[in-house]
Every structure is written in structure tokens, then in C-alpha cells.
Amino acid sequence: MTNGALLVLGSANRDYTVVIERHPMPGETVLGGEAVVGTGGKGSNQAVAAARAGAKPIFLAAVGADSTGADILRDLDSFGVDTSRVERVAHATGIALITVSHSGENSIVVAAGANQALEAAPIASVVSELAGPGVVLLAQLEIPVAVVDAAASVISAAGGRFVLNLSPFTTVPPRMLALADPLVVNETEASELSNSIIDSIADAQVVAGRLLERSRSVVLTLGGDGTVIADSSGVVHLHARRVEVIDTTGAGDAFAGALAAALAAGATLRDAVEKGLDAGAEAVQHLGAQPSL
Ligand code: RIB
Questions:
Q1: 39 lines ligand 1 (CB under 6 A)
Q2: Whole-prediction pTM value?
Q3: DSSP of 123-153, one letter per residue?
Q4: In ligand 1, which atom is closest to the CA atom of 106?
Q5: Which residues of the chain fall below pLDDT 70?
Q6: What are the start-end ranges of the E strands in 112-217?
Q7: Which of 110, 167, 286 most suits a substitution to test ligand 1, by most atoms within 8 Å of the C-beta?
Q8: Which residue in 29, 76, 206, 276 has its CB near the most CB atoms, within 10 A?
């Protein structure tokens, strides 16, 4: 595979989003407002963000052999994502039920379906075919951890770069964390991983520094408060652009996808984070995880 190639390994979902006044309490029904049905899943959102940032990402994923799977692949193709390696499996395509409050905060429940059908050996074999020096592999955790673990080993052994978005948070093998360059986490994920509380940018800088003992580099995102980077040259905080927030769904994915696209194109980590911040700021300004085609 050529220098600068980007592989995105992860989930694809059909997202059902409803705007609500406030999130329901357990046992309560609330009436919502506007509803949108769109393509989502952290992997697919990141692949789309990478394509919009100028990469031609190869998406490694599984969708059902159903009409929803076909619709998702068509959407991704239209954005310029290479879907030729996406598996069609005998499970329903993943779905996500999302509520978004007027302040832009979301709640998401995912039924993983086809995403959980991905297996380590076939993915390791595809990654080994495509891997090489300069190739970047970006992954998140809505698919089995064993699949990401295998892919991380293969890309790293081939001299490529492994970017891990530890989202949604789950326990992962320390060897996989150790290969991440960078490990991309939000405040909640960083708190869970480090067992610490993050109440301020100063706290985030301390936690990012600690997480650097477990990964090659760390990017800790703080929403509207920007991002902290920790790598061998130190710990820095970069500010985010202030924008009107409509829906935060997929903003972290847009950040990670644009960041990985920039790294694949040869950018420094700091410059790649700047690209991620721009993509995240743009993503919160529309309803749904991906922009309209
Ligand atoms: O990160 C946002 C994504 O999380 C949504 O698109 C939804 O599908 C869930 O995977």
C-alpha cells in the first residue's frame, strides 16, 4: 500500500435521531420534535470525516446483507469512502437510537448487529495486505476488541501508524494501548481509563501526561474547551473555535477522522489536531452524525 494511505476499521450503523426538550427519566415517555434517519456508527462517521478532509479511506467494517446495509454503503461511496472491503454478513445492520436535547447533548443506544460479526483473523489478513510504512490505521471500539487488537499488531509490525479512539470506553489489552499513536480520548474516557476526575484544563493536562506512560502519544478532547496533546515534546493545550452547537453527535468522530487523514498526509500531530478541531466544530453545527450529502 502506498505511503499516505488510511484504513478506517470500525462500525457502521443506521442512526435514528429525535430532538427532545429534555432526556426522559426511566419509565417516562417524552414527546420529541424533529427526527432524522441517517448513516452513522463511529467507524463510518470517521471514514466520512477523513474523506471530507481529503483522504481516500479504505473502510474495514461489516454491514448486514439487508437494504439498510446497501443504503449505508451507497452513502459512504458518495462521500468518497472506499467500501470495497466492507463485509456483508447474515446479521441485521447495526442501529443507533439517539436523542438530542436543545442544548445539543445526546444519549445513544446501539444495537451492534453486524458490527459484532467482524472477526480478528480475516481483518488481520486484510490489514496485512494493505499495511506498510506510512499507512495509518484508525479504529474505535464499537466492534470486538480482539479485532482491533489484531489489526493494531499487524499495522504496527508493518511500520504503519495505529490511531486508537477509545470510544465507547471499554477495557483493552495494555499492549494495544501501548501501540496507539495517538490514543484519542474524550474527558469521560480519559477519566475512566486513568481513574481520575477531570474538572479543568489543568486536570486534563495532568491526566494526559499520565496516559502518555501507557501510549506513544495522547490526544484528550475537551469539547468546546479544546484539546490537550501529550507526546515526547511535552503537554500542550489547543483552543477550540466557539460555534453554535446544534448536535454533538459524531463531533468526536469528525475530529478523529480529520486528525487521522492529516496524519496519513504527513502532518505533525499538532497540525493534525488543529484539523480535527476544525472538523469537530463544523460537525456540531448540523443535526445527525454525518453532514447531508
Ligand atoms: O459517535 C456517534 C455515533 O455513535 C453515532 O453515529 C451512532 O451510530 C453511534 O455509533
A1: no
A2: 0.97
A3: HHHHHHHH--TT-EEEE-SSS-HHHHHHHHH
A4: 2
A5: 1-3
A6: 136-139, 161-165, 180-186
A7: 110
A8: 276
Q: Whose CA is nearest to atom 9 of ligand 1?
A: 41
Residues in the chain: 293
Please report the pLDDT score of residue 102 as a whole number.
85
248 lines ligand 1 (CB under 6 A): no
Longest dimension (CA), the chain: 53
What is the model's pLDDT at position 2? 56
Q: What's the pLDDT score for residue 245?
A: 93
Residue 134 gets the label, from left (phi > 0), alpha (psi -120 to 50) or beta, of left
Annotated catalytic residue, options 77, 231, 253, 271: 253
**Ligand 1 atom at minimal distance to the Cα of residue 96:** 8
CB 156 within 8 A of CB 179: yes
Report CA-CA distances (Å) from 84 to 25, 64, 73, 275: 42, 15, 9, 27
Give me the pLDDT at residue 103, please.
82
Four-point Cα dihedral 243, 244, 249, 255, nearest 10? -10
User: What is the Cα Rg of the chain in Å?
Assistant: 18
Q: What is the pLDDT of residue 26?
A: 92
Adjacent-strand bridge partners of 36? 17
State the residue for C-alpha cell 452524525: 289
Instruction: Please work out whether the CB of residue 262 comes within 6 Å of at least one atom of ligand 1.
Output: no
Give me the pLDDT at residue 181, please: 98
C-alpha cell at 234: 511535552
Residue 223 C-alpha cell reads as 469539547
Query: Would you say the CB of residue 15 lies under 6 angstroms from ligand 1?
Result: yes
Tens digits of residue pLDDT in 233-248: 999 999 999 999 999 9
Rounded distance between C-alpha atoms, residue 148 and residue 137, angstroms: 10
The answer to whether residue 253 is catalytic is: yes
